Every structure is written in C-alpha cells, then in structure tokens.
Amino acid sequence: MSRKDTALKYFNEQKEMTDLKVKTGIELYRKGDADITIKTTDGSPLPEDITVEVEQTNHEFKFGANIFMLDEFECDEKNKIYRDKFSEIFNLATVPFYWRDLEPVQGKPRYTADSPKIYRRPAPDLCVDYCKEKGIEPKCHCLNYDGWAPDWVVKKTVGEHKALLEKRFRELSERYAKDIPSWEVTNETIQNCNSQFFYEDDFLEWSYRMADRYFPSNRLIINDYNIWFPENYTNRHAYYMQIERLLRNGITHLDSIGMQFHSFFPLASEPNAAKQRYNPEILYKLMDLFAKLGLAEQITEMTIPAYGGDEENEWVQAELIKNVYSVFFSHPAMEAVIYWNVVDGYAAFAPQGDMTVGENIYYGGLLRFDMSEKPAYKMLRHLVNEEWHTSEVVKANGGKVNFRGFYGDYKLTIHAGDKTVERVYKLSKHAKNNITITL
Q: Most C-beta atoms within 10 A of its C-beta, which of 89, 351, 372, 424?
C-alpha cells in the first residue's frame, strides 16, 4: 500500500462522519451573527442604496507557529522571506523563554535584540517587536521548564531554586506581562526532569501560584507531550489527573490545556501510529475527555512529517494538515493550533540543512530549506485565509445589516449614497456582536 493509503486510512474510512462533524462544528463554534445598525447623526432618512463591504482581517482563533528562526538564517534574503511568510498565515507566535538559553550566565539575561545570539533562541525583545509590527500575538514558552533549566540552577537546594525561579517570574512579568498575553507555566512535567525541585510534591502547585502572583491578568497554560495514546482516553490518564489535582488543590488561575502533537516517529511506524494520531474518532474522543475539566484547549506544538522532499510525501503531509486542522478547528474547546518549525532543515538537534539527523529527518516544515512553499504551506494558507475567511458585500435593509462570519476582526466599508465610511468591527465568540454606526 502507498503512504497515501496508510497515513490517510482513518480519515478516508470515516470521511462521511468527519465531514459532517467538521462542517457542523465550524458553523456552530467558529462563526457568529453580526448585527449592525446604521443611522445618521441628525436622524434624517438614510439613503436607500446602502451597501457594506465586509472583509475579515484577523481570526479570533489562534493559528500560530514557533518563531525560533526570526533573524536566525544564514543570509538576509532568507530572514526577509521568513518574516514575510510567517505573517501571511499566523496570528500567534511562540517566543522562546527557555531559561538555560535566556540566562546562560546568571544575572545576564538575553532580553534585548542586540544580545549575543544563540541558535533558535532569538531574544524576546526582537520577537515582541516583530509581533507588534505584524499584528501577531506573542506567547511565552515557558516559565518553568525543568528540562531546560540552567546548569547554575539545577544543583541548587529546593529553597534556592524556588528563590531564583521567583526572581525570574518577577523580572519577566515586569518586562513582558503587558505585551505577552499568554504564558505557558510548566512544560513536559510527565517525562522531563533536571533538578531536585522537580521531585517535590508542590512543584506544579508552587509554579501556578507563583505565576498567578506575577501574571494575574494573563492567560496561564499547562503543556505536555505524551498524551495521544490509547490508554489516554479515560480520566485515569496521567495528564488528566495532573490537571484535575491542580484544580482540586485550589489552583483557580489556569486557563488552557496545552497538548503537543509532534508526530516524531519513523515512517515505518506511521501505519500503526495513524490508528491514534490520524484518526478523527480518537482525536475527538481525547478533546472531549479533556473538555470535561472545563478549560480551553490548545494544540501547542504540531509537527506533521513529510519524511522526504518528493511529490507524494509532500502531498500526504498537506492532506494530513488539512484533516487534523479541520478536526481541531471544529471542536468547541479548542482555541489555538500552533505549528512548530516553519522551515525544513532548521529543526532542533541538527546542523542547519542536514536532513539526516535530529528533528530534521522528519521534513516537518511548511517551507523547504530554500524557503520555497511546500504544499503544506499552501494548504494551511488556503484554510486560514480563504476557506475559513469571511468576505462579502451586504445590502442594508432599513438601516440594518446582518451577516454570519468567522469570529475575528473586520474592516467594514459602508457605501451610503455619495458617502463612504470605514469602520473596524470585532465579531467575537464572547460578545453580543451588535453595534451602531453613525454616518
């Protein structure tokens, strides 16, 4: 059997059910009704021929990727292409706050854009400035990732470690809390450990109480990796119980459940892995399970492998992206899907361009090493900017304008007789969505 048959087996077998569930879910949970009233300042009659051009400019749902390669390429041309291509699709950027790389020398953090470079770790100021320029929301990854703690921390006593972490939380809050809405507090606590503090019973509770102290108005997120396996579909799964315990222990400031979705397995294992990873029934089942906890969900890190640069493998990668994104986008609990590496050949644990080692072996990027667009990039751009996009012209009826569109930001261009007026409008899942525009 070809890879087309094995990787897409369960999406093909469940196509009728999945298409209906995706279509219904997107219509119910990703779109809303806009109610606009147009009137004149002095109450005089409105022109009879009012039309409104409705153009969506951004999604409320977050489509993101890590921004680890910002200005990290070997030439200015690639850096420019990356800056342009990233903003064509994504409205969220995961910014690296790995403590080991952000503060490799104690007391000398790499915050500013002119800080000494570390590969795949652009300085936070550089990332935040780019996001402001492009209208992209930055997100922190991660406050207390024990697997990436600095060497000068890991041998400290528990008390000393906590004191240093609190200092880190405080400094990051003072510098970035106003510019970065969302913060991953802990990451991969089921399997990664480095310090003595990690083994303490209060590792998680302490982290979230400290995050609440210093980031009281920000979104706080928990994140982990090994969750997409058959034993995970009950409330006895370790990650589920971990979050449940946090809630029971009085952690009230936890907004989102982060779920990594890296398909880091060999090509030979894909037919078997597809039973869980690329199976819509299983994907919905796991999202439904975690929705019982009453928190929003995010796909925080996604890699869909192509396994090579040939036409068939790149096509399969694009089709998998179309299917998994559609399933995730259609679920009511999901609020974000964040792809991981945008460009092939620049993944972790490998020299640049060496596709034989590290995470490069999966060919999981959306762009090729030469920055050309893979079918995966074109597919995701089509979904975000075309299929899941609202653009129409609506004729007013008695000063009323109604349309149904995807939640997000809009530019409204009102043509009333010889007048043309532009307004911005937010159609939100969390609002009544009725406004009055005065001509």
A: 89
